[in-house]
Design brief:
The chain is an alpha/beta fold. The chain has 4 domains: about 80 residues, GMP Synthetase, Chain A, domain 3 (2-Layer Sandwich), CATH 3.30.300; about 90 residues, Orthogonal Bundle (Helicase, Ruva Protein, domain 3), CATH 1.10.8; about 150 residues, Rossmann fold (3-Layer(aba) Sandwich), CATH 3.40.50; about 100 residues, DnaA protein, C-terminal DNA-binding domain (Chromosomal Replication Initiator Protein Dnaa, Chain: A, Orthogonal Bundle). About 55% of the residues lie in helices and about 10% in strands. It is built from 20 helices and 10 strands. The strands form 3 sheets. The chain has a 5-stranded parallel sheet, with helices on both faces. Helix 1 crosses helix 2, helix 4 crosses helix 11 and helix 4 runs antiparallel to helix 13. The longest helix has 23 residues. The chain is globular, with a radius of gyration of 25 Å. It starts with a helix and ends with a helix.
């Protein structure tokens, strides 16, 4: 076959493996698959898409190549901002790029499709039957945890127990479910069991009361891989903790795998008891933190694909910029966006998204005053309120001032003009400009100075938002 035919055949195989919708989103509109003899290159429209495709689909691309050519692939990933994708939808004409202007929305939303979209969004990916590792969006905040999960799912992870630690909404349950499904796929003859802490406790108590301990132990200890979620709910349940300890020891003795998840680290899990904490310390602990902008953008696009929504780049970027928490909050934002599109009979566009997210921020947070924002900024950056509101333009004041305006716009009900007036600006356009600069910094993963140290702007915002919640 000619190189172009090989590329087309590879595209078709890849689309079948990862799903037509995901292929269309990432390869039809934002990348090219290029073949030159034994060389395979994936060229993308920008560095973010390059890194995302490499993290998400490198194995699938290599497997498809090997299946076609009978040899291992040497895959190169590169990006070119002038690239015009031409792969097409696995044999279909190339799809139009997703970029759309705000006055020409990408899609009109009608009631039947909205109902389907809402249903798709309503079911969190971590709880669904198709929640595999391929559907997990990888970023700086979770890459090590993902790689460990991937090895465990293939039976190649040596450390047990494997513990995922992180706040709510960062993907711990998704990883546990994905490990369960992938391990079963690779080891079809082996028993795999997933339980929440509540399910483990309830089953244990029922066994004590008459259903039989042998059956309970056979069910839990007879598996080749045991996954237990919400470890933080075990403290205080002495008999259950003893049984969990014996279960972990049983798995360790046989060289079998236990995977756990908790929203608290070992320091906060001391109530589990020294023996159990010691077992956890002897395994592998992977921390997941709230996703940074690039990961949030990938999550938004992933959810949109699952729900059949077509979002312009502007809308996806806006959601990922404004919602700085985890996957659940991002899904909630898309819920609201879809609902408002239906309620107002408008297509999903950037102006609609701005209204939806503004209302979401107001409904989901306590009342924040401009004075609260000012105090948090002054405390964090070590500046006086009078300095913050002055005309001085040095970086040590310009950065906290623009962050103050960004937070004020997000968390207060004050209009642009009132925010500008409060922070000593004579024109509301100054506030708009500051707001745009912060959003650009987030999108470009830029840095600001915090406590006399360079700091990722998203990390600084996270610190400030935490302070606002407790102010």
């Amino acid at each position: 076959m000619e190189d172009s035919q090989v590329a087309a055949a590879l595209s078709a195989q890849l689309a079948e493996r990862i799903g037509a919708k995901r292929f269309k989103l990432w390869f039809s509109t934002q990348a090219q698959i290029q073949v030159c003899g034994a060389a395979l290159t994936i060229r993308t429209v920008n560095a973010f898409v390059r890194d995302w495709i490499r993290a998400q689909f490198a194995d699938e691309i290599a497997d498809c190549w090997t299946a076609m050519k009978g040899e291992a692939a040497r895959v190169e990933f590169s990006y070119d901002s002038t690239l015009a994708p031409v792969n097409g939808d696995a044999g279909q004409p190339a799809a139009k790029p997703l970029v759309a202007t705000t006055d020409k929305p990408t899609k009109s939303i009608e009631s039947p499709s909205v109902a389907a979209n809402a249903a798709a969004l309503a079911c969190p990916s971590g709880r669904r039957g198709n929640a595999g590792l391929a559907g997990f969006v990888v970023g700086r905040n979770n890459e090590y945890a993902f790689r460990s999960a991937e090895l465990t799912a293939r039976g190649r992870q040596q450390a047990s127990p494997l513990l995922f630690v992180g706040p709510s909404g960062v993907g711990k349950t998704h990883l546990l479910r994905a490990i369960q499904q992938e391990f079963r796929r690779h080891h079809m003859r082996d028993a795999v069991l997933y339980l929440t802490a509540e399910q483990f406790t309830t089953s244990f108590v029922e066994a004590l009361r008459g259903s039989g301990m042998p059956n309970f132990r056979q069910k839990c200890r007879g598996a080749q891989l045991l996954a237990i979620d919400d470890l933080q709910f075990f403290p205080g349940k002495r008999r259950t903790l003893e049984e969990l300890l014996y279960t972990l020891d049983s798995f360790a003795a046989d060289g079998r795998q236990v995977v756990l998840a908790s929203d608290r680290g070992l320091t906060e899990l001391r109530a589990l008891g020294p023996e159990l904490v010691s077992r956890l310390s002897g395994g592998l602990i992977c921390e997941l933190s709230p996703p940074e902008f690039a990961t949030r953008l990938g999550i938004v696009r992933q959810f949109a694909v699952e729900a059949g929504l077509e979002l312009s780049d502007d809308v996806a970027t806006l959601v990922a910029t404004q919602i700085t928490a985890g996957a659940r909050e991002l899904r909630g934002a898309l819920h609201r966006l879809t609902a408002m599109s239906t309620a107002y009979g408008e297509a999903i566009s950037k102006p609609l998204a701005e209204r939806a997210l503004e209302e979401l921020a107001r409904h989901s947070t306590r009342t924040v005053r401009l004075a609260d924002v000012q105090k948090v900024i002054c405390d964090a950056f070590g500046v006086e309120a009078a300095q913050l509101r002055s005309d001085r333009k040095g970086r040590s004041l310009a950065e906290p001032r623009m962050l103050a305006m960004w937070l004020a716009r997000k968390y207060t009900r004050a209009p642009w003009s009132e925010i500008g007036e409060f922070f000593g600006r004579h024109s509301h356009s100054t506030v708009i400009s500051a707001h745009r600069r912060v959003e650009k910094l987030i999108a470009e993963q830029g840095k600001v100075g915090l406590a006399n140290q360079p700091c990722q702007v998203e990390d600084a915002i996270r610190v400030l938002e935490t302070a606002l919640r407790t102010a």
